[in-house]
Amino acid sequence: MKAFAMLLDRLAFTPGRLGKLRLIEAHFAATPDPDRGYALAALTGGLAFDAAKPAMIRALVATRVDAALFEWSYDFVGDLAETVALIWPQRPGANREPELTEVVEGLSAAKKTEVPALVERWLDALDANGRWALLKLITGGLRVGVSARLAKTALAQFGAGNGQTVDVGAVEEVWHGLTPPYEALFAWLEGRAPRPSVDSLAMFRPLMLANPIEAAELAGLDPADYAAEWKWDGIRVQIVARADGGLGGSLGQGESRLFSRTGDDVGGAFPDLVGALDFDAVLDGELLVCRDGVVAPFNDLQQRLNRKVVTAKMLADYPAFLRLYDILFEGGEDLRPLPFMERRRRLEAWHAATAPRSRMKDRMDLSPLVPFASWDELTALRDGARMAGIEGLMLKRCDSPYVSGRPKGPWFKWKRGALTLDVVVMYAQRGHGKRSSYYSDYTFGAWRGDPTDGAAELVPVGKAYFGFTDAELLRLDKWVRDNTIDRFGPVRQVRPGLVLEVAFDSVHPSTRHKSGLAMRFPRVHRIRWDKPPEEADRVETLAAMVVS
Amino acid sequence: MKVTPRGLFCEPGGFYVDPTRAVDRAVVTHGHADHARPGHGRVLATPGTLAIMAARYGPEMAAATQPLAYGEPLRVGDVTVHLAPAGHILGSAQAVLEYRGSRIVVSGDYKRRLDATCAAFEPVPCDVFVTEATFGLPVFRHPPDGEEIGKLLDSLRLFPERGHVVGVYALGKCQRVITLLRAAGYDAPIYVHGALTALCDLYEAEGVALGDLRPVTVATKAEMAGQIVLAPPSAIADRWARRLPDPLTAMASGWMRVRARARQRGVELPLVISDHADWDELTQTLDDVGAPEVWVTHGREEALIHHAAGRGYRARALALVGRDEEGQ
Ligand SMILES: [Zn+2]
Ligand SMILES: [Zn+2]
Questions:
Q1: pLDDT tier at A94, thresholds 50, 70, 90
Q2: Which pLDDT tens digit goes with each residue over A125-171?
Q3: How confident is the model at residue B322 (pLDDT cuts 50, 70, 90)?
Q4: Is A42 helix (H, G, I), strand (E, B) or coil?
Q5: Which helix (H) or strand (E) holds A424?
Q6: d(CA B42, CA B21)
Q7: Extents of the domains making up chain A
Q8: CA-closest candidate to residue B269, choices A426, A362, A14
Q9: Do the chains contact at A437 and B262, CB–CB below 8 Å?
Q10: Are the beta carbons of A89 and A65 closer than 8 angstroms?
Q11: What is the pLDDT of residue A388?
C-alpha cells in the first residue's frame, strides 16, 4: 500500500504527461504482482466499491476524534478524505500495514456490515499518506490526472523497456479481454509469456478517433484523398453482435453488446437495440434517438442514458437508433486493415444483405457519404447544415486502415463554425507545470458602453489558456509583466492594452461572470498586437450570439 | 507580564520579549524577522541570535547588545532571566523569566524533533507557558524528516535530467535541509540561490558543517540536470527558475502537509519539513512543562486552547500584533 500511496501522491502533484508516465512505469517495474495489477486497475477506473460512502467514513472518525477539533480541521483542509487521513490517531504497531491486494480483495469479499471495521483496522495500520490513498481508493475519487489511455501508454513503455515490441495500440487491442490484476498482461510485457489471446471474445475493440481541424488547415489537404460524412450529435458506440456465435466462434450464441467509445458496456439501457442485434459483425456507429427518420436533440438521448430500469413508455417516447459508418469485423473476418473506402463498400454490401431480414431493419441505417469536389463546396455544405443532430463534418482519408487511438492525419472532425470575438486582456495568472513561471492564463473582457467616449468599462467574459505557441507565450508573459497595474496573490491585473481574438463554440447565460454570459471552450485564436483595445468588441455583441 | 501594541512587556524587568517595534530593552528569542526587529536600544539574546541579527540588519542593528549563553541566569530589574534551547533554528531560545518565586516561559517558536543545526528543546517546568500554535491543528503531524528527504532523493533518481529546485526559508530551513541531505548520504555539491549564501556562511562559522555548497551562477543550464538547488520560496516559480533544465519544484515546509496549500504554491514535490512543533509536539510540550496556565500565540489558537482546557489547563489566546502566522 505504501508504494501505491506514494504513486498516487506523486501523480497528483506531477503536472506533465511525461512525468506521470515515468512514475507509473517505475511503479510497474518495482512492484510485484498482483499489487501492480490492482494499481493499474485503480488508475484505469476498473475498481469500484460501493460499500464505503463518505458518511461511513465520517461516522468512523467521529468515534475516534474530538468533534470540535475535527470541524476546525475539516474547515482548514477542505477535503473530507484528506482531513480524515491526516487527523486519524494512528495506533502504532496495532496491525501490519495492508498491501493493496489485501484491500481490494478484502473489500470485494466483505459484507456491507463488515466494511467499517475493516476500514478502521486499515486506517490504524497505515500512515497519513497511506490513509489518504485508501480513502480515495474506496470512495472512488482518485482524481490524480491519469486517464486510462495514459496508464496504457505507461504499460506500453514498460513493455518496450523490457525489450518487447509493443505500442499503446497493442495494449488497447488486448485490454478489453483482460481483468484485474492483469498478470497475463504483465507476463507478456516482461517477455515471460506470449501475448494474451483475446481474438475470440465478444469484446470491445479500441476505437479510431479523429483530430479537430480548422478551415485554414484544409488548404494543405487534397480533397480527392478524403471522404466526408456528417458528424452526428449523438453518442459514438461500437456494436459487437455475434448472434451466430461467430468472430472465431468460441463463445455462446446470441451474445451482443453495445460499448461506449471508452469501452463501457452501455447496452443495459438499450434492451430494444441489444435484443435485436441478430447478426454477426462489429460495427462503428452513432447512437441516436430518431423519430420517423429525424434525429432528435441530444437531450432526448440523454433521457435514455444510464438508466437501470427502462420502461415501455421510455422505449416508445425515445426510440433508440443506430446510424452506422464503419465495419470492423464481418463474421470472423477482421476488416480493420482494409482502406476506408474498401470497408465502406463492405459496410454497404453487408447492410444491403443483412438489414432486410434483421429485427434492426427500422432501427439502423448508414450514415451517408457527403459528396464534394472542392473544399469550398464542402464549406458551403457545412455552413448550410444548421439543423439539429449535426455537429459538423467528419473527414476520413480514403486509404486509411482502422487503427486504434488518435493517429495524426487520417481522420479529422470539422466542427460547425466556431464563433469569434475580439476581447481585451484584464488579468493574467501563472500556469501549471512547465508553464508555472509564465503568465499563461488570461481573463479577458468586452466593453460595456462605448469605449470611444471614455465612460465604458471592461466586463470579464471568459478565460483562456491555450491557442498560442511557446514563442507567443514568451511575448505574452513579457507583456503582462511590463503592463501590470496591480497584484492579488498569483493574479496580475494588467493595463487594458492587448486584444485577443478568441474562438469559442457557443455562448450561454451564466451567473459566473459579471457579464451574465459564459463561453463554451474559449481559446486564443489570434493575438491582435496590432489592434487598439477600444476597437475590441462589446458585451452586446456577445449577448447576441447566445443560442436560444 | 502585559500585552501591549509593541508586544509582550515584562513590567518588573522593564523589557519586552520579541517586540514588534523598536523599544528600549528587548529580549529576543530568535532571529526570524517576526521576532527580531532592528532598532532596539538594548538587546539580550543568545550569541547565535545576535550573530544572525547582525548579519541580517548590519552591525548597527541595536544600540547595545548583550549575549547570554543557554542556562546562564541574569538579573534584569527585579527579574531573573535565563535562556533555554528552543530547537527551532540556530540560537533559538525560550525566555525563562522568574519573579517572586513564579516562573513564566516565553517559548518563542520551537520544535521537539532533532535538528543538527541547533540545540534541542529543553522543557522547563513553569507556572505560565507561552506557546506558539503555528501548526495548532491535529491534521498537522509532521512525518519523519528522513522520509521526506528520501522522496527528494528518489525523485532525483527518477528524473535525472531535471533540475530539482527546493523552496526553503533562508534562515533555518535552508541549513536544516542541507544537513538532512548530508545525513542521508548525499555528498554531491548543493547549489544555493544568492539570497541564501550569507546565512549558510554564518551557520558554517557557527560550527554547522554544510559540505560543498555552490552558487547557481557557476554552472551551465545543462550541468544543473539532476542537481539540487535551494532557493527562497518566492524564486522557485518565477523567471529565476528558468535557468534550470525542466525545473522540478519542491518546497520544504510544514504547510506542505495540506495538499491545497501545496497546489496553491504550484509545487510538484511537497516536502513536509517544518521548524515548528506539530500537533503532537505542542500537546506533549504542554504536559512536559506542566504549567497550569497556557497562553497561545500565532496560529490556530482555538484548537490548542480547546485541547488544553480538556486537559485541565487554563488556556487563553494572546493576541500579538505582527506575528507571522505562516511561520518561517
Ligand atoms: Zn521563527
Ligand atoms: Zn514566529
A1: low
A2: 999 999 999 999 988 777 787 888 899 999 999 999 999 999 988 89
A3: low
A4: helix
A5: strand A419-430
A6: 13
A7: 211-415, 419-543
A8: A14
A9: no
A10: yes
A11: 57
**Residue A254 above 60 pLDDT?**
no
A77 Cβ under 8 Å from any chain B Cβ: yes
Looking at domain A211-415, its CATH architecture is: 2-Layer Sandwich (3.30)
Asked if A22's CB is within 8 angstroms of B249's CB, the reply is: no
The CA radius of gyration of chain B, in Å to the nearest whole number, is 20
> Nearest Cα to B272, choosing from A189, A291, A184, A86?
A86
Classified as helix, coil or strand, B321 is coil
Q: Residues of chain B with pLDDT > 70: what percent? A: 97
Residue given cell 503532537 in the structure block: B280
Q: Which of A73, A76, A437 faces B239 most closely, judged by CB atoms?
A: A437
A446 in helix, strand or coil?
strand
**pLDDT score, position A244:** 64
* CA A487 from centroid of its chain's CA atoms: 35
Question: Is the four-CA dihedral A450, A453, A459, A465 of positive or negative sign?
Answer: positive
> Which tens digit of pLDDT belongs to each residue from B260-311?
889 888 899 999 999 999 999 999 999 999 999 999 987 789 999 999 999 9
Amino acid found at A468:
F
Interface residues from chain B to A (CB-CB < 8 Å)? 137-141, 143, 151, 155, 158-159, 237-239, 241-242, 246, 249, 257-260, 262-264, 266-270, 300, 302-303, 306-307, 310
Beta-carbon separation of B268 and A77 below 8 A:
no
Q: A26: which chain B residues are within 8 Å (Cβ-Cβ)? A: 158
For chain A, positions 49-68, list CB contacts with chain B under 8 A: 65-66, 68
In order, the DSSP letters of B95-121 are EEEEETTEEEEE--S---S--TTSPPP
Residue A518 pLDDT more than 80? yes
Cβ-defined contact of A66 to B306 (cutoff 8 Å): yes
pLDDT at B306 (0 to 100): 96
Q: Which CATH superfamily is domain A419-543 in?
A: Nucleic acid-binding proteins (2.40.50.140)
Cα distances from A517 to residues A421, A513, B192, in angstroms, run 13, 6, 48
CATH number assigned to the domain with residue range B145-271, chosen from the 4 options 3.40.630, 3.40.50, 1.10.287, 3.30.420: 3.40.50
Confidence of residue A184 (pLDDT cuts 50, 70, 90): very high
Contact B245, B122 (CB under 8 A): no
Model confidence, pTM: 0.75
Which candidate, A541, A546, A547, A545, places its Cα nearest to that of A447?
A541
The vertex-A27 CA angle with A24 and A32, nearest 5°, equals: 140
Could you tell me how many residues make up chain A?
Answer: 548
Regarding an ipTM greater than 0.85, the answer is yes
CB A72 to CB B300 under 8 A?
Answer: yes
Residue B16 near residue B95 (C-beta atoms within 8 A)? no
CATH class name, domain B2-139+276-327: alpha beta
